[in-house]
Design a protein that fits this description.
The complex is a heterodimer of chains A (372) and B (623). By secondary structure, chain A is mainly α. Chain A has one domain (10-365). Chain A is built from 15 helices and three strands. Chain B is an alpha+beta fold and 623 residues long. The chains are: A mainly alpha (372), B alpha+beta (623).
């Protein structure tokens, strides 16, 4: 850190020298703590489950810490390489990937499996941000087209696995960069209209039957009360029966008697809703809002195009993450398999999320401070 | 470092644009957060009641508890039908991922019959209630229970349940008296009170079990429990409403007598019915061959069932539904009727040359069973003792069919005995009207003559024969037959009064009863001419009886010779009716043995064994 020597309280603090952002860290810790509490109940008071989750969170925080140490310029430099590497891996998955739950998502590397799509969650916004960083913004139509290509390539590859949730997130992360780069509202509106026209085409020619069924069941869960509709029905019952103040920690009947499926992973929000009620939900949303607000603030403070666009995309994607999950669990959106960020039990995506926050911290703490 | 373009980039414009976008984003995010919160509040506040109820419905279940079926006792308090705990393998289809696969695996593991599997699928298709346990295999052996216990983790949704199931300790001996229970089928499902049978799997199918179903079944109870998603009961202390057990039945039946009768008939096709003449209570009711009712309780295999469909017809309740020509067994009744109506006087006698001609028609011959006849001066008395056909040909002709039919109906022929078993057949007491209606032909005098020896169109059931025998023992007073004498147990035990039959004999002159009874006594005890003397001659008690030998195919002149060459199924039916002790009758019996030959030598000995058992062993104390 060779920035100009400005005497600011922040500079002296240990936390600053460690390239951590205190408010963001605080928000994340609140979130993880609350999440662990809910998970303890959802997992049937299993200590080993909590232990594994803490280990994973610890690993994620370590990665966040390491990532925060490198300046944004470093990531900009490596963005194309990472992106290219990711594309290669995605192709590899399609060719020789391991099947899990009927979809090819995993690559096996010397005994451990991972999802290359996770890399793309960061690589795509990085790549688009890098692409825009050397261009005049708002960009021209040809550049916009290239940007779209950058986004669509991995999106389609992941959609083919098929993994609707992740491809949606990745597309969103890339599109957010484009949006933040200042594409005119007219164009955005144009895309919106195109999307509406395209939707039926997509329904009939692109979507897989199981995806269509998800949508149908989403619109009418009673269609399949024992199958995929069962999740939504049980989850709404859990949340609704929680009432204002909830049934109490460890006392949710839907979750404790196991009527709620996937209660420690994708549907953990329903456990929270049942046991902590509307109050708990408000608390959780508030914590999320703190994190997001801080992320947005960091974005606005970024000094280079690349960091600015990247920071904005990361935090907006984070919101999409939680919105889609909560929307799905509460029956507002169709069931797309996405975990509740930093609360759901589960591995890879959490690490990626924390890596993203590491980048936010890197962006914030590597600024060249201008005296006022 | 960034080259030429840097100079073209307008940083301030870019930042302004960016910040504008970020502010818009934040506003949208904030609004969407509010949307989520409102949406959740909508679920948690405005739809709270509904979801709260649904979550309670999920976990709180009212489990129906089946009542215990009433027991059946004999007259001495011996249990004839009980409930035994049986292990059965049961499946909750909703909890099984791949039902077909699971059933296949279980079938392999426990070697379950295809019949059971088929029945399971039937039940499965029929069950409308969710999360109901459907039995796959009843009556698991200990080995099967152990085998499953080891592998049970592989079969979520499958469990072993202990259930009370009907058991008939005396099997085939009592099957035609008690009937049996079996799994409730579609048709029964339509007619029963479904609420009350929610937890019940079995229902009376046949006989007593069916007739007294409403008494035996009891009233369903319930238990409110908290279950998890697997249906496992987490808390059963919420509330309870115990079921009311079914009411016990106390029968008139004497198990030891029944056993004796069954043993005496074993290997033959036939029936023994013993009744108490003073009440109409059925002391024994046997039809052979029998079958094991326990096979039907949990579902009979098609192999076992096919085996029961043999020509001996074990499923057929001969006592209740067998319709036989009564033959000579009704001669005492006809004699009484003739005497009572002054058709003949007690001293009236005939000369029997072995053949009878109608006064109006000397073409048609009616032969006596005894070639050459019974000789001179055959009065009613000798006609009964020796079973003279010629006498009764003439007397019947003199009485005419109208009188005979009316009189015999009063003895219960052609009518239900009202026995509490259901599915009784009334036999047939032929009349002019009947013949005209059923056959479209007039009644001929020859028909009357045949009726005089209990042949022709006349059909009777073993129950009717026993009841008609009891009527003579009782000087004409006749009761409806019944198996059950009391219901309930302990203080609530309720005795059921015997009921006189609706049609009663015009009792008239007591002397005629005595005449007929004396003649019947000689059937058993006249050591020279009594047709049942070889069976009853040496009995320690006095008794009365009448034999019957019913020809099933028409024979020519040389009938004795022809009989030897007859196919087994065409041989004569052996019949016997009687009662004892002579002075104060306590038991009246009927015996029918199909295709056995003469009644005196084939049916009477069976009656003797039965009466001996009742008078000398079973009822010794009360004698």
């Amino acid at each position: 850190m060779n920035g100009p020597s400005h005497t600011h309280k922040e500079r002296q603090s240990l936390i600053w020298r460690l390239h951590m952002d205190m408010p963001l860290l605080f928000g994340l810790c609140l979130l993880m703590g609350f999440g662990l509490m809910v998970l303890y109940s959802a997992g049937g008071e299993s200590e080993s489950l909590i232990y594994r989750q803490v280990t994973r969170l610890g690993m994620g925080c370590a990665i966040m810490f390491v990532i925060a140490q490198f300046p944004p310029r470093f990531y900009a430099k490596w963005a194309p390489a990472l992106y290219g590497f990711g594309i290669v891996l995605l192709l590899a998955v399609l060719i020789m990937g391991d099947e899990g739950k009927g979809a090819q998502r995993w690559l096996v590397f010397g005994g451990f499996r991972f999802q290359p799509s996770e890399i793309m969650k960061l690589a795509v916004p990085m790549m688009v941000a890098w692409y825009f960083s050397e261009r005049v913004l708002p960009c021209r139509k040809r550049e916009l087209f290239v940007a779209f290509l950058i986004v669509m390539c991995p999106t389609l590859l992941i959609l083919k696995q098929p993994d609707l949730g992740t491809s949606l997130l990745i597309a969103a992360s890339g599109i957010f960069v484009i949006y933040l780069s200042g594409v005119s509202w007219k164009l955005i509106a144009g895309f919106g209209v195109t999307g509406i026209i395209y939707a039926p085409v997509h329904w009939f020619f692109v979507m897989r039957e199981y995806q269509r069924e998800r949508v149908r069941v989403f619109l009418d869960p009673e269609r399949d009360p024992l199958g995929s509709g069962y999740h939504i029905i049980q989850s709404k019952i859990a949340i609704g029966s929680g009432g204002t103040s909830g049934k109490g920690w460890l006392k949710g009947t839907q979750s404790q008697l196991e009527f709620l499926p996937e209660r420690s992973t994708d549907f953990i929000f329903a456990v929270l809703g049942e046991e902590f009620g509307l109050v708990g939900v408000a608390v959780l949303l508030s914590i999320y809002l703190i994190v997001i607000a801080r992320g947005i603030y960091i974005g606005t403070q970024a000094q280079e195009t690349f960091s600015r666009l990247l920071a904005g995309a990361i935090i907006l994607t984070f919101f999409i993450y939680l919105f889609v999950n909560i929307g799905m669990v509460t029956g507002l959106l169709p069931v797309v398999g996405l975990p509740l960020p930093l609360v759901s039990y589960g591995g890879t995506s959490m690490v990626t999320l924390l890596a993203g926050f590491g980048m936010l911290m890197s962006i914030y703490t590597h600024r060249k401070l201008v005296s006022t | 470092m960034l080259g030429r373009k840097v100079t073209l980039k307008n940083q301030f414009k870019e930042i302004a644009l960016y910040q504008n976008r970020m502010v818009v984003s934040f506003i949208i995010i904030f609004l969407m957060m509010i949307l989520l919160l409102v949406w959740v509040a909508n679920l948690q506040i405005f739809h709270y009641e509904r979801y709260r109820t649904e979550s309670d419905n999920n976990r709180i279940r009212v489990v129906p508890v089946a009542p215990t079926r009433g027991l059946i006792y004999d007259r001495n308090g011996v249990i004839l039908a009980e409930n035994r705990s049986v292990y059965s393998l049961e499946v909750v289809p909703e909890k099984v991922n791949d039902l077909t696969e699971t059933v296949n695996q279980l079938q392999k593991l426990l070697t379950i019959d295809n019949d059971d599997v088929e029945r399971f699928w039937q039940d499965f298709r029929r069950t409308r209630e969710r999360f109901k346990k459907i039995p796959l295999k009843s009556k698991l052996t200990e080995k099967q229970v152990a085998l499953f216990a080891v592998e049970r983790h592989k079969f979520p949704g499958v469990s072993i349940e202990a259930r009370l199931v009907r058991y008939y300790p005396y099997g085939e001996i009592l099957v035609h008296a008690l009937g049996y229970v079996g799994r409730i089928n579609d048709r029964e499902l339509q007619s029963i009170d479904q609420e009350n049978y929610k937890a019940t799997r079995h229902i009376g199918k046949v006989g007593l079990e069916k007739f007294y179903e409403s008494i035996l079944h009891g009233t369903i109870g319930s238990q409110t429990v908290v279950t998890d998603v697997q249906g496992r009961v987490v808390d059963d202390s919420i509330s309870k409403k115990p079921p009311v057990a079914g009411t016990d039945l106390h029968l008139e039946l004497d198990l030891e007598l029944q056993k004796t009768a069954f043993k005496a008939l074993e290997g033959k096709r036939g029936s023994v019915v013993a009744v108490d003449p003073k009440t109409g209570g059925v002391l024994a009711l046997v039809s052979t061959p029998g079958y094991d009712p326990n096979l039907f309780v949990t579902g009979i295999s098609s192999k076992d069932y096919k085996a029961l469909l043999n020509p001996d017809r074990p499923l057929f309740n001969r006592a209740l539904r067998g319709q036989y020509s009564p033959g000579s067994t009704i001669k005492p009744h006809l004699a009484w009727l003739a005497l009572q109506n002054n058709i003949v006087t007690p001293s009236y006698s005939i000369v029997d040359k072995g053949v009878y001609f109608l006064p109006t028609d000397d073409e048609q011959k009616f032969r006596d069973w005894k070639k050459g006849g019974h000789g001179d001066s055959i009065s009613y008395r000798r006609a009964i003792i020796q079973s003279c056909d010629t006498y009764f040909y003439e007397v019947a002709f003199k009485m005419g069919i109208d009188l005979i039919a009316k009189g015999m109906m009063q003895f219960g022929f052609g009518q239900d005995t009202k026995i509490d078993m259901g599915e009784e057949v009334p036999g047939l007491m032929p009349t002019r009207e009947w013949k005209k209606g059923a056959r479209g032909v007039h009644w001929f005098p020859g028909d009357t003559v045949n009726t005089g020896i209990g042949q022709g169109y006349w059909l009777s059931t073993p129950l009717q024969l026993a009841n008609a025998s009891a009527a003579i023992a009782n000087d004409g007073e006749r009761y409806n037959l019944r198996l059950v004498s009391a219901i309930g147990i302990g203080e609530t035990k309720k005795l059921i009064e015997p009921q006189l039959a609706e049609e009663q004999v015009d009792i008239g002159d007591g002397l005629h009863w005595q005449r007929v009874q004396d003649a019947m006594k000689d059937v058993n005890h006249n050591l020279i001419i009594g047709t049942a003397k070889s069976a009853f001659g040496d009995a320690k008690y006095k008794s009365a009886g009448k034999t019957g030998t019913v020809q099933l195919v028409a024979l020519g002149e040389d009938r004795d010779k022809e009989k030897e060459n007859l196919a087994e199924r065409h041989r004569d039916n052996a019949l016997y009716i009687g009662y004892a002790p002579f002075e104060n009758p306590t038991i009246a019996v009927s015996v029918v043995v199909e295709n056995a030959g003469g009644g005196g030598s084939n049916a009477a000995p069976i009656a003797r064994k039965v009466i001996d058992q009742y008078l000398l062993k079973s009822n010794k104390d009360s004698r």
